[in-house]
Each structure stands twice: as C-alpha cells, then as structure tokens.
Design goal:
2 copies of one chain form a homodimer. By secondary structure, chain A is α/β, with parallel strands linked by helices. The first copy, chain A, has 11 helices and 25 strands. In chain A, the strands form 8 sheets. In chain A, strands 5-2-1-9-21-20 form a 6-stranded mixed sheet, covered by helices on one side. In chain A, helix 2 links the parallel strand 1 and strand 2. The interface between A and B is large, with 61 and 61 residues.
C-alpha cells in the first residue's frame, strides 16, 4: 500500500517501525540520503519515557513529555509518518502486514520497544499496573490521587490505612523514581490539603527480590539511593519476592502487605512483534541481533533499542536506555547509507559508548554513575535535571518542563493533579484500567 | 456522615455543591465566617471552562486550565473538600444524599453547573460530542487529530474528503471558538506535517439554526465575527436547522453534509440535580430562583451559576458566564454572613454587573462588547487574552498558559497534539467515546 503512493519512485524504501528514541534516530540519520523513509507507529507521538514517572506522579502533563512524530520529522522531505499497527513481518517477501495493508521494504528497522511483563501472572496486571506509556501514567496518577481521596472518605481505620499504603514492586530506576516521587507527593505536595487524614502518614514500600536496589549501579550508589529513599520515608525491602497480588494487597516472601495501590516496575519484555519474526529471542523476548544489529540471514533487517538483545564485549545485553537506542539508531542509519553506495563488504560492529547512567529519587536526591565518577545527593540530582532537560525533544517542552520544575521546587506544589475519566471509584471498588493492562496481550504492534 | 466528623461543632454547616466559579466564590466568601464549609464535587479539580476549547484543539494541556479544588482551598481552615456525587436533596429534612452517605446542612448552595443537551436526540451524542469537561475536550482532541490521520491513510477521494470535513453545530461563543481554532489548526499548525493530504484543504462548517451567529452580541459584532471566521476559511451557515446526525454526517435544512467529525455546541441544560429538587425549572432545566437567589420557600437554599435561571431587570435569564456565577457566589456568601448575625429582615436582590462579554475566533481575531464599547480584530483578541490570563485560577497556570500562547503565536505550533487512549480508529470505524456522552443520563450529580 505504501509502495503504491509513491508510484514509480526508484529510491530504496526504508521502513522504520517505532517512533521512540531509536526509530527517530534512524529516520533523522537518513534525512539527506537518497532513500524514502516511512516511519510507522501506532501512536501519533514520540514519548520522552525517562520522565514518564513524573506524569504518573502528577508533576508534569502528558504533553510536556511528548511531541507529535509528524511535527518532529515534518521538515524531513524524504520521510513520511504513518499511524499504523504492524501485525507481522514476512522476512522472505520483505513485506510488513499492517492494519493499513501490506508495506514493502528494501530496508527494515524494527524499533518497537518493550512492554511490561508480569512473568506469567497476567492476572496481577489489573492490581499492579506497569508504566510504559501515557495511558499507563494517567491510570497510575488516577489511582494514586484517588487513594488519598478514598482515605479521606473512609471512617474505618484499617481500611483507611490500606488506602494510604502504596507498594512499588521492582527496585530498578523506574521503581526507585516512582517510590521517591510518591513519598514526596504525600509529604510535601498534599500535606495541607486534607482535613481528616494526614497524607504524610502514607506508607510507601519499595519491594525488590534481589539483595539490593539499583543493581545496575555500584554497591555504594545502591546504598546511597536506599538511604536517600529512607530519608524521604520510603520503606525499602530487598530480598522479598512477590508471591501473590490481589485487589487488597500482596504477599511477598512470607509476609502479607495490605495496600490500596500497587505499582509494577519489575519487568519488561521485548515488543510482541519480536515473536512474529521466527528468529531467536533471548529470555526477555528480545531479538538476538548480530554485532551489526541486523538479523541473522537478513542483512537488510535491523533491530534496535529495547526490542533488541545486543551483547556488550563481556557478553551481557545492553540496558534498555535511551542513549543505547539513539546510538544504535545513528549506527544503523550509517550502515544503510554505506550499503547504498556499496560499502563496505564487511559490516562494522556496534559499540555502545556508555556516558553514564542515573536515577533520581526526589528533590535534591539522586545517584549518578558517570564513568568512574559517582555522584549522590544534590550534585547527582542537578546533573540529572540538566541532562534530562537538554534531551527533551523540542524547545517548548524543555521550557515548560523547566518552568514546572522550578515552580514545584520552590512551592512544593505539582501542576497536574488531575483525576479525569471515570472519576473516583465508589466505596471499595477499584477504578477499571483505562486501557488493556497487559500490553503484550494486544497482539504484535510497535 | 459529614456532620459526624466534626463532632459537637456548633457552627452552622454550609454545604456547597460544585467547585466551579460559583461554588468557589461562595466558599471563599465564607473564609473568615463562623461557619464550617463543606464543598462537594464529583471531580477533584476546578476547571477554567472558558479555555476548555483550547484543550479540545490541542493548544493547552488539561492541567493548564485546572487546579485541584483542595489546593485552591487548602489554606481556608473552616473548609473541607469532599469528592462525592450528590444523588438528591431532601429540602424538608435539610439533607443531601450522596454516594458517601447523607450530609446535613444548615445552608445549602447548589452550584452544579450545566451539561450538554441534544434536545431529545440522545442518539446524536455519540456522533456529535459536546464540550463541558476535560474528558469531553480530550475526546474531541482525539477525534479531530485522528480525522487528519485517517485522511492521510485513505486512498478513496470521497472518503478522504469526508474525513477532512468538520462541522460545528451551534453558533454561540463555544461554537465560534471551536470552528475558528479548528480552521487555524488545519491551516497553520498541521500545514506541513502530512505527505498525502493538504490539511489546509479541510472544510470547517459552522452551522446555526438562527439568522446570525453570536446572538448575544450586537448585529455588528455578529457580522464582524462571521467575516473573521470566513477569513480563516470557516464556512458559516446560518438559518440551517439540524434534522439528523449520523456517523457519516448530518442533514441540516434540506441539505446533506458528509462529515467525519461533528461537534455539538448547540445547547446546555441545567445539572440533572435540579430535577430532583421538586421546584419549578425553566425550559432549559434551570432552577427558577427568587431575586435573592434562594429557592421559593427555602431561604436557606440557594442556587447559582449555570444551574440557576436568574432573571435580569428585563425578565431575561442571565447568560451562563463565569462572571455571573462568581458575582452570584460572592452575593450568596454575603447573604449567609448577614443571616448569621440576624440581618437583614428583607433580603437584598442580586444584580449582575455586566462588565462585558467576548468571544475569540483565532489568532488576532475576536469580538468584544464592553458596555457600549465594541471591539473587533486584534484589539478584541488582545483584551480577551489579557482578561483570560488574569482570571486563571493560580499563578502557575497563568504563566504556563501565557508561555504556551506566546510560543504558539510565534511558531504556529501547538503543544498538546496527543492522541492517547484507544489510539486510532481502524479503517472506517469511529473511536468509541471515552466517557458516556450524554452527561445528563448519568443521574443527578454536581
């Protein structure tokens, strides 16, 4: 279908699936190449995922961390953007099947990302939503704000305590960010707004099955993060594996925790599109790519970002971070450009240049690992702030987010405390998830 | 239930239903009075409704025009805010029934607003959504942005033209604002973002049954508004009564208009709560109040804002505008304060001080009636901008909105072009409404 619209255009057709950091980097890297580029995404917006937890915690609006993919690429004349859901790939015929019909390609770059997984416990999803897109974030914001409202309305002390207990499952960066932001929300933002409850009495528990949080960081930074979280009032519980999740709480280890709100930050799995390819996947459902990021036997097909299992020199898969996806995208654009002019016979190998990683915990609290340099506290937080604002996709978002943060920093207020949609749950009822919670059940899609 | 929590508190209990302009004005007017105030709303946020069309047209984010009611009133110690749905009023027993249980009052102020009405054609609602709350605005934003996407994907010229036809029904301020903003969206914001369609070729039709748009304004201003709309490319069709609305368009007069998106700005009706009172209502379902805004036979119950039919000196009902609701709220707070000290024996009469009204059409285009002064074009637009920013509920929103406007003005971009939720409709399918479209079918509620 896409082929037909450009008629007799003889330029090779490069199809990019996914408008995240990886997909956009590929498209931009081909801006002045003699190809036509089609970027497919089932959403109309690029999402600045590192700040998604801020939307979930009412600090930022959805539009502050998003940009229409069309607008991002509008000046790039060889590129078209289509909203489409990719249903499968016929590698032999070099053709995608989508809800818009078939799309033929000469080069294909799969950058469809990852989605939450509950490790076979799909029934947990409705009680413990994950955080992968804006709908997830709005749903979590709704649940968190509604929990305080429900506590304010609840005369029974036990039920009130349950409404005021928040459990975050998973001690990676997302779990740490959610737990820290939640504790801050309760202790500062909401502190004076209720009459019957004291929001500061809310319990925020961060549960992780491993022996420390932030395992991707050094032990020192792990310990510093745990200490900073505890200073905010978060109870950090490591070595506690979740055995069951239900509407009223969870069982972790031998322990029962009654909780009105449970958030899932414990695992992601490669886009279900990977499973339709018929190529080897790793345990996390990611495509095992060759060192040049192409698929075995298909030098014209690449897979990048969270959807790919790309091993580093030590044989460990690269982490699911924006810089990895962006570097891979630029790398693949280069490989395609080289191939267009017949160069080189042997492909280069992708190498990730690790400029560091960081996790934020709260106001003036974060940890950062920048090469050998380890930062904690205000210095790490300030570095985190500066880098995240610099990387925001366009000027306006940068300015709005900066303004929101300065405002929040000095006033202890948050700007996006909205409960929209179905409103408050009645009595003991929980709000229905606004979207299908197990993203992976939705069929293959970017 | 509310009574019990304050125990033996002997202060009179003032219950305010609704956290809009009217309800907030009452609560604030009683800040230092020897009463306890309970404000009930089924939403957690005050909404700056005059700018709601900007959210629907992707110019502003929902949080930019909202403020948590709790935060607005948090410093006011005699006031509590409860999220509750009011189901009915027992005037004789001085008691509300809510989903939280019964709430007893000494004074009751009903300020539950209005909702869209399709004049008995409730089946039109799903094809032609109204614009009364944030969920409506997000739904309309979704439909409008998705229509351009659908047109981009559509090979058939007739269907493509239908996707690019937008009809706004109702030539009041909301309809004029929607039509103008829609035309601007198509002609400037989206102009360069598509590859197969020219968004500027979109047809925006404003349909009204009367002989001119903006009937509340002078004939000169009506004509000026129509001319400004036509300059933006809007087709203004007056004297055309809508006879039928379906998924593919509408019949108006003898004419069939094929349209992919239809918006309803043709009528509102008082909150369904009014119908539970057993008091006389006007044709638009509003409570017929006495000159002091109280209910006949119930000097302790008041009704204000869009929910009330308050007649001016000429016997015409006051318009549903924020200044009317705010002045009425302050007036009723004064009546209650007087009553607390036993004054006066005869109640004053509410008089609306009309400081003017305005409608915006687009960039540098508006009409304003300020007493005898009539403004059009840039002067009216600038006055509109200044007044709306001044009235935004708190400092942060003011600054963010101002920034967004300056940014949009100079870049012709809009910041909130998000399609969230269920994503795009497939093929010819329409997106399901995100909420029940006929607000009035939801039972009595603020």
């Amino acid at each position: 279908m896409t082929g037909s619209t450009t008629g007799a255009d003889a330029r090779p057709h490069v199809v990019v699936v996914g408008g995240g950091f990886g997909g956009l980097a590929v498209a931009r890297g081909l801006a002045s190449s003699p190809v036509r580029v089609t970027l497919l995404d089932r959403k109309n917006h690029h999402l600045f995922q590192p700040l998604l937890y801020q939307v979930a915690m009412a600090g930022l609006s959805p539009a502050d961390i998003s940009a229409p993919i069309r607008a991002v690429l509008s000046a790039q004349e060889n590129t078209q953007v289509l909203l489409a859901t990719v249903e499968g790939v016929d590698l032999a015929a070099r053709r995608l099947t989508t809800d818009l019909g078939a799309v033929e390609y000469d080069y294909l770059i799969l950058a469809a990302g990852a989605c939450s997984t509950w490790f076979g416990h799909d029934d947990w999803a409705r009680h413990a939503p994950g955080l992968k897109d804006l709908d997830d974030a709005i749903e979590i914001r709704h649940r968190v704000l509604a929990a305080f409202e429900a506590a304010e309305r609840e005369p029974d002390p036990a039920r009130r305590a349950r409404h005021l207990t928040f459990v975050v499952i998973g001690g990676g960066p997302t779990g740490v960010e959610l737990a820290g932001a939640l504790a801050e929300l309760a202790r500062t933002v909401l502190a004076r707004d209720f009459r019957r409850i004291d929001p500061a009495s809310a319990r925020v528990v961060l549960v992780d099955g491993g022996n420390r949080i932030l395992q991707a960081f050094s032990e020192d930074l792990s310990a510093a993060a745990a200490a900073q979280l505890e200073r905010l009032g978060v109870v950090v519980r490591t070595g506690l594996r979740v055995a069951a999740v239900d509407a009223d709480g969870l069982t972790a280890g031998d322990e029962r925790i009654e909780a009105g709100t449970i958030l899932w930050a414990a695992g992601v799995v490669g886009s279900p599109l990977a499973r339709t390819l018929g190529v080897p996947l790793d345990r996390a459902g990611r495509v095992c790519v060759l060192p040049d990021l192409s698929l075995p036997g298909h030098p014209e097909v690449f897979c990048i970002g969270d959807m790919a299992a790309c091993l580093d020199d030590a044989g460990a898969p690269l982490p699911g971070l924006a810089p990895v996806a962006m570097q891979q995208g630029r790398f693949v654009a280069g490989v395609v450009r080289d191939a267009l002019v017949g160069l080189p016979l042997s492909r280069p190998r992708f190498r990730y240049r690790d400029k560091g990683s960081m996790a934020t915990i709260g106001r003036s609290a974060a940890v950062a690992q920048l090469g050998r340099l380890e930062l904690t506290g205000f210095a790490a937080w300030f570095a985190w702030l500066a880098i995240h604002i610099l990387f925001l996709i366009d000027f306006r978002n940068r300015a709005v987010v900066l303004f929101n943060w300065i405002w929040s920093y000095f006033t202890y207020k948050r700007g996006a405390r909205l409960i929209t949609g179905s409103g408050l749950p009645r009595a003991a009822e929980r709000p229905p998830p606004s979207t299908e919670r197990d993203d992976c059940a939705n069929g293959a899609a970017p």
